[in-house]
Amino acid sequence: MRRFTAWLSAILLPLLLLTGCGGGKTDGKSFTLPLDAAPYQLDPQVADDVGSREVLAGLFESLTRLSDTGAAAPAGAATWTVSPDGTTYTFALVSTQWSNGDPVTSADYAYAISRLQGGSSPFASLAADITAVQAPDDSTLVIQLAAADAGFPARVANQAFMPCEQKFFEKTAGRYGLTKDSVLSNGAFSLSAWGTASLTMAKAAGYHDSAHILPAQVTYAFTAPADPLQALKSGAVDAAFLPAMVTDKSVHVITLRDTVQTVVFNTQRTALSSVKIRQALRDAIDWAALPDYLNSDTSVRATGYIPPDAAPQGGTVDPLPFATDAAGAQQSLAGGLADLSLTAMPDFTLLCADDAASFKLATFIAQCWQRDLSIYNITVTQVAAADLAQSVDSGNYDMALYSSLAPSIPLAFASPGNPAHFSDDAYTALAATADANTLQQRLWTLCPVLPVAFVSRFVGVSVKVTGLVVRPFQGGAFGATFDFRGAGKK
Q1: Minimal CA–CA distance to 116: which of 106, 126, 102, 131?
Q2: Are 374 and 353 found together in one domain?
Q3: In this predicted model, what pLDDT tens digit does every residue of 386-422 receive, in sequence order?
Q4: Quick one: 231 and 135 in the same domain?
Q5: I need a surface site. Which of 107, 128, 144, 412 has the fewest CB within 10 A?
């Protein structure tokens, strides 16, 4: 998937909060930021939940980090070279310390890679082509690949390549990353407190670039304030997610256009395994009337699977052919049922989040299917957002009105573990070479998921804060929504 993923990394650009005006000392301050969910395990080779990834980006540092353009930049490695055949990379490490004061060595990076290759890491595929790792001295790491890969320096920016000190890991006896005392980090911050409501990191004195790290302390709050705007104005928090756009002179508002609300079909269900039946459900939706059922404060009708913040630079993503075709939908439904030897659609539940806007939209979609396809046995059921995500992830659902923060849904559906539990070998092969338009058009034809709305999210930041970076897609390839290394406060 190199062609598509190369484009994808290029579009994950940060949204910067512009530095404010005014004099005075801005460094050495404390910040409180939001975190959607508490971290589960602060183990870079294992943690794949959003909360953990956000925190790991502050506590640890990989061999490289991604620049604003998605290119590899020095981090744990000061420089690197590649052999003439492109298969051997030699990294020269910076001189830096673990949070306990011990030096970070090449053996620590080598051990992290061995954990990727020898265990059950969800990131194991990132090291699948690594054939040998050598640490000839404490400051040199040599990695050999099965084949040349010019993108390897950017790949090792991933959290999976953050170092792991073997003796400390073994001493934790299976509890590595689960408590404050079982975390040993090498990043710009070290863990100073980890409770049920918040987590606090303090600037790490032994970090190699500590002179350029401005905050003294950063706290992640796991629970959103009841009134986020008031919390911002009072100084209780320095950034917060807002339910809608606001105009207030004390707050900068950054709009993240990074969410696609979708109808996703569980293709493990017999009827929904049929492309014809899914196409029938797609073509029976009244797309022209659908905008009337969206939350106008946050949403517009989707034009495709790729949200605005992921639009390729210098290119365009063509709109999909949204059209209602009741007669065609009826024919597709009949053909799909006949192929499966079914006489009618079985009972289905359409899950949605437990807010009024989601229920309104889900009910409208179900009514479209009732009107044009005579499917009356679909029940709309509201569940808590966390339960909705869990049901979709586990496959314990039929259909769901589900919001995706994937920069590219078409690319996500070319891999196992997608929300529809969809698999198509030809589609996966196409993703290896296709451009964004070709791949999203093919996904529209197969329609295991339907884009319904582009949803904006709003991040409020106190006007007293400077230098904070806010990124879409929960940080995407950068790992974290917030980059606060250069953040100050007036």
Answers
A1: 126
A2: yes
A3: 899 999 999 999 999 999 988 889 988 998 889 999 9
A4: yes
A5: 128
> How many CB atoms sit inside 10 A of residue 143's CB?
23
| Under 8 Å between Cβ of 119 and 45 | yes
Domain count, the chain: 2
Same domain, 396 and 290: yes
181 and 266 share one domain: no
- 373-384 residue pLDDT tens: 999 999 999 999
Instruction: Kindly report each contact of residues 173-180 with a partner whose C-beta sits within 8 Å and lies 24 or more positions away, as own/partner.
Output: 176/43, 177/41, 177/42, 177/43, 177/46, 177/47, 178/41, 178/42, 178/43
The answer to whether residue 249 is domain-embedded is no
Distance CA 179, CA 120 (A): 21
Q: Give exposure, 315-347, as e/b (b: 16+ Cβ within 10 Å).
A: eebeebebebeeeebbebbebbbeeeeeeebee
pTM: 0.87
What confidence score (pLDDT) does residue 24 get?
A: 60
Give the residue numbers spanning the domain of 427. Answer: 257-456
